[in-house]
Write a structure and sequence with these properties.
Elements (H helix, E strand, L loop, with lengths): L2 H19 L8 H13 L1 E4 L5 H14 L3 H4 L4 E4 L4 E5 L9 H4 L2 H10 L5 E10 L20 E6 L10 E3 L8 H13 L10 H11 L4 E3 L6 E5 L4 E2 L9 E9 L2
Antiparallel strand pairs: 1-8, 2-3, 3-4, 4-10, 5-8, 5-10, 6-7, 6-9
Helix pairs in contact: 1-7, 2-6
């Protein structure tokens, strides 16, 4: 498909139809409304120590035991970015029954429905390990995931400080911006052959000054949950001393 056709299709109807289908709605639960409003405004909401430590411990034990079972592992899709110090296991609901308290969580599902759409679905369940001394990942560069709403739920499985790959986010960067439009245009037209939503250091410095943005680094104890729209600019951080960060993640959108 030519670049011109891709751009025409996107701005002629794809973007418009998506926005019609994805509108914020009001819940009868005020706690959900408060969280949805915070995500709509800032792009992120952090729930510190949301999952009990005993459940986290059980999840990690179950994952550890399951990873020893070759008959299960060979059925999973695994992305091993060894040069970047990242390993991801998809269909992670098969790794731990207790983890399904996150993956099949009615509270998070309701937040997703009221933030994204009543027709939203959880389309990916992932277990990720990150952290090797001296290794830098492409995801450690500020970027956005898409022009669409990309609502994600992350759960830290271990204590995460500044030295072991904390998540970093620019609040309010989901908002429209003239230069972001150019980035999105390139994203639509060129896909992975272009910058694909990534920002160079000087572009980030310019953006922060122009929009008065400041980044937040999400550190927290095991059990901390991050609710985030990754249309906003975000990145990971490399491990300083080789200490690892483990998390579970669920992605939501229209499919």
């Amino acid at each position: 498909m030519s670049v011109i056709v891709k751009i025409f299709r996107h701005y002629a109807y794809q973007r418009y139809l998506y926005r019609l289908k994805t509108r914020k709605t009001i819940s009868e639960n005020e706690k959900i409304n408060k969280i949805v409003s915070e995500i709509e405004d800032k792009g992120i909401c952090v729930l510190n120590n949301y999952i009990e430590k005993k459940l986290i411990k059980k999840i990690k034990l179950e994952i550890s035991e399951t990873l020893k079972k070759k008959n299960i592992i060979k059925k999973l899709k695994i992305y091993d970015f060894n040069d970047q110090g990242i390993k991801r296991y998809l269909s992670a609901d098969k790794l731990s029954k207790t983890a399904n308290k996150l993956f099949y969580n009615s509270f998070f599902d309701e937040i997703a429905k009221h933030y994204v759409s009543k027709n939203v679905v959880a389309y990916q369940k992932m277990y990720e390990i990150k952290g090797s001394e001296g290794k830098f990942a492409t995801t450690d560069i500020f970027h956005f995931d898409d022009w669409r709403k990309r609502f994600k739920v992350f759960l830290y499985l271990n204590d995460v400080g500044i030295n072991n790959c904390p998540f970093c986010y620019i609040p309010k960067s989901i908002k429209s911006d003239k230069k972001r439009i150019l980035k999105e245009l390139e994203y639509i037209a060129l896909g992975k052959s272009g910058s694909y939503g990534y920002y160079l250091n000087h572009e980030m410095e310019n953006l922060k000054k122009r929009k008065n943005y400041s980044e937040i680094t999400v550190t927290g104890e095991a059990g901390t949950v991050i609710l985030v729209d990754t249309r906003g600019l975000h990145k990971g951080n490399p491990s300083i001393f080789g200490n690892k960060r483990e998390l579970l993640a669920t992605y939501y959108d229209l499919r």
